[in-house]
Amino acid sequence: MDRITAAKVFVNVAERASMTATAEALDMSRAMVTRYLAHMETWAGARLLHRTTRRISLTSAGEQTLSRCRQMLEVAEQMQVAVDAQADVPQGLLRLTCAQSIAQDVLAAAVADFLRRHPQTAIDLHISDRTVNLVEERIDLAIRITNDLDPNLIARPLGSCGSVVCATPAYLAEHGTPRAPQELALHNCLTYSYFGKSLWQLEHKGRQIAVPVGGNLSANESSVLLTAVLEGAGIAMQPEYSAAPLIASGRLVALLPDWRPQTMGVYGVYSSRRQMPAALRAMLDFLAARFADARYWPPAAAATLRKKR
């Protein structure tokens, strides 16, 4: 049983000299009061109260225990005040997970800024291309780009992530530039294992089309495919946050400007709303604000490029 509650019951009985009055004051049954007193006497290893039909009084051991229980309750109260005062201050270790591409292109800079703003926090960032079990691996927050959320988890929308079909100028000079989505079937398309492995979904003015694609390289991490594309290995569909700077510099060419790949949601995924740590709440608020700001979210650059084409 809870020893703090048992101590509180004992102090109340000693001060009120009544088990019934104690039960009413603490909003518990008289039987529960009796159980807590028995627990206190077992803990103290001595009888603490003289009980008769008319009155309750302290034994010698009870008088000594009463003083110690009052001290213990005072310390417990001070501890709760200290915890309450710190409850809204982001602090402690926060364990995050996300894929490599968003980690290096977006999240690393965001985390550095967050740590500057909240110096009492620390981040343990796990880079993984798989969907990890948050509870089993003790992850506080997963940043996921998906349109297929696990209904058993809680997800806060943070933004959206567009994609772009792209290749190097050298590849296009050698193999030609596709002018329609169907022409992608004639090219070496490097595919992502977890999304669009054999079909790329494209949209134009409300019309949607699924284009069969294939090639000699697939990978479960989009940053690996980006490196291969830069080496002239083929055409790939890449997140705008990765491709936008390379398109702006001329190292990559955005293809099929009238056709937009399917937009994905960016979510902060966590396991429970109960007793959410201040650091986790602060991180979610921070990322939602940052991703809404065009200065920090790379897809804004790709959107500008599309307007210029």
Describe the structure.
43% of the residues lie in helices and 24% in strands. It has 309 residues and is of the alpha/beta class. A 5-stranded mixed beta sheet has the order 4-3-5-15-6, covered by helices on one side. A 5-stranded mixed beta sheet has the order 11-8-12-7-13. Strands 10-9-14 form a 3-stranded antiparallel beta sheet, with no helix packed on it. Helix 5 (100-117) links the parallel strand 3 and strand 4 (121-127). The radius of gyration is 31 Å and the shape is rod-shaped. The chain starts with a helix and ends with a helix. Mean pLDDT is 86; it is low at 300-309.
Please outline the helices and strands:
Layout: H1 3-16, H2 19-26, H3 30-44, E1 49-51, E2 56-58, H4 60-86, E3 92-98, H5 100-117, E4 121-127, E5 141-146, E6 154-161, E7 163-167, H6 169-175, E8 189-192, E9 199-204, E10 207-212, E11 218-219, H7 222-230, E12 235-239, H8 240-249, E13 253-254, E14 260-261, E15 264-270, H9 278-291, H10 299-308
Parallel strand pairs: 3-4, 3-5, 8-11, 8-12
Antiparallel strand pairs: 1-2, 5-15, 6-15, 7-12, 7-13, 9-10, 9-14
Helix pairs in contact: 1-2, 1-3, 1-4, 2-3, 8-10
List its traits.
309 residues; alpha/beta; Arc Repressor Mutant, subunit A; D-Maltodextrin-Binding Protein, domain 2; 3 domains; five-stranded mixed beta sheet; 10 helices; 24% strand
Briefly say what this structure is.
With 309 residues, the chain is α/β, with parallel strands linked by helices.
